[in-house]
Amino acid sequence: MKLQRIAAEATTEAGPDAVWALLSDRSTWPNWSPLGSHSGVQPGRDGTPDGLGGIAQFVTGRTCVQEEIVEREPPRRLSYALLSGMPLRDYRAVVELTSAGAGTRIRWSATFLPGRPGTGWLYRLVLNRIFRGMVAGLAAAARTRS
């Protein structure tokens, strides 16, 4: 099966610290994104909910996913891996924040292998739509907050 790649980008007038404050607190994600409810499953190795190794659950409609933080570089980069909830393998998402003048460029990308042959296009389509909502929502929320 072929490795699938998706990405969405947005720019906000808010600075990287304001964007990072929202991005690094997964409990805020349902407030500004298409995701449904959030709950912490396991704290990170540092004892905080969203530290390295922290596991969270998101429920959106009938879909319940669990994701683990696998990389944190404040205020530039957050990466997480899908543990369960979708028939995908080796799913890893990366959110990168870069300065763009006085604001911030947000790039949310992921790679994955479809769990079943012939389904990669469908998951690319669905996840691209979700990622567009994620970056647009994060950009707007950070602008409003700052």
Automatic annotation (TrEMBL):
Pfam families: Polyketide_cyc2 (PF10604). Gene3D superfamilies: 3.30.530.20. InterPro entries: Polyketide_cyclase/dehydratase (IPR019587), START-like_dom_sf (IPR023393). This is SRPBCC family protein. It comes from Pseudonocardia zijingensis. The lineage of its organism: Bacteria, Bacillati, Actinomycetota, Actinomycetes, Pseudonocardiales.
